[in-house]
Amino acid sequence: MAQNKPLPGLEITNVDPGFRTVRASRSWRSGHSQMVTAMCVHDTQLYTASEDGTVREYRVDTAEFVMAYTGHYGAVLTLDVSGTQGLFSGGYDSTIRQWTVQGGQGKTARTLTHRGMVKAVKLSPAGDYAYSGATDGTLKKWEITTGECVDTVKSDSGSVLSIELGEPPLLLMGTAGGKVLVMDMSCGVGVKTFQPHPTAVTFIAIAPEYVITNDGRARLFNMSTGACLNSLLLHTDAVSSMHYSHGQLFSGCYDGTLKQFDVKGQAVLRAFASAGGRVTAITSKGNMIYSVSTDGFIREHPVSPGAGQSPDHERAVKRTAFCLSLIHI
């Protein structure tokens, strides 16, 4: 287990010699009446969730609005999508909803419940299980075909705010109390605890050599020891949203900036021009990054290739590294 010692101080990040600021290649209004809270993309479709209680779907290539998904009572706070099981969302009403399409509208196909707001939903790569975290302090594992809750893990550090999947049956969860815990979901037992954060952990990602977190600052952790290696100073204000893809970390800030950080090269590659207020959600597809800010506009930005690996190679490397790291518990 990691020691309860202070995290490293903020370090000014290196800037790549080819660094430049780029403008959005496209932008369009989300159509939501309140702030967008989450985004995800699958194939040709982009999905956004909002505090207005709806999920909206657009075509990535044309930015055309396709349909709205309605059924939540209160804000929708998290999204994930699978090619086999479709779209899932979680929200203020303590439910996870699996969606279907009927008559050109998104309808609830199945409802799963917590006793608190659902802050995180993650689908397994095989599409057989869904994992959810909530303000009731629980992490739940659901069998998608039956809707049955097959396991519940109780957090000892408050709300479960973020989830990342390692090689099955391993899972990471981040809590409101600043903990990152590695779980073995085959038996519901905690395997490892990372060095504690001073505040809530709202994002976790597994990179080939690191675990990346956000508690208002971007932090890189050693997989084997659980110790924090770097606390990155990427912005002048706190980090409001994050997304990791193919070796690249994208961070959005309360000051309205969005940056691309090459994890392998340890350098900032690009800043993306935006005057839309706080960046509230980020996702990616191919060589494009999509962000949304408090002004309600979705923006598409071209991504620098950086030093990342191919998607398949990276998945194999990071999962193998993560599993091997558990030898050093």
Number of DSSP strand runs: 30
Integer average pLDDT: 88
Classify the secondary structure makeup into a structural class.
mainly beta
The dominant shape is globular
Report strand %: over 45%
The N- and C-terminal alpha carbons lie at a distance of 7 Å
Can you tell me about this structure?
The protein is mostly beta strands. The protein has 1 helix and 30 strands. The chain has one helix spanning 311-325, and strands spanning 10-12, 14-22, 26-29, 36-42, 45-50, 54-59, 65-70, 76-82, 86-91, 95-102, 105-113, 118-123, 129-134, 138-143, 148-154, 160-165, 170-175, 180-184, 189-193, 203-206, 210-214, 218-222, 228-233, 239-245, 248-253, 258-262, 267-272, 279-285, 288-293, 297-302. The strands form 7 sheets. The protein has a 5-stranded mixed beta sheet with strand order 1-23-22-21-20. The longest helix has 15 residues, at 311-325. It is globular.
Concise synopsis of the structure shown:
The protein is mostly beta strands. It has one helix at 311-325, and strands at 10-12, 14-22, 26-29, 36-42, 45-50, 54-59, 65-70, 76-82, 86-91, 95-102, 105-113, 118-123, 129-134, 138-143, 148-154, 160-165, 170-175, 180-184, 189-193, 203-206, 210-214, 218-222, 228-233, 239-245, 248-253, 258-262, 267-272, 279-285, 288-293, 297-302.
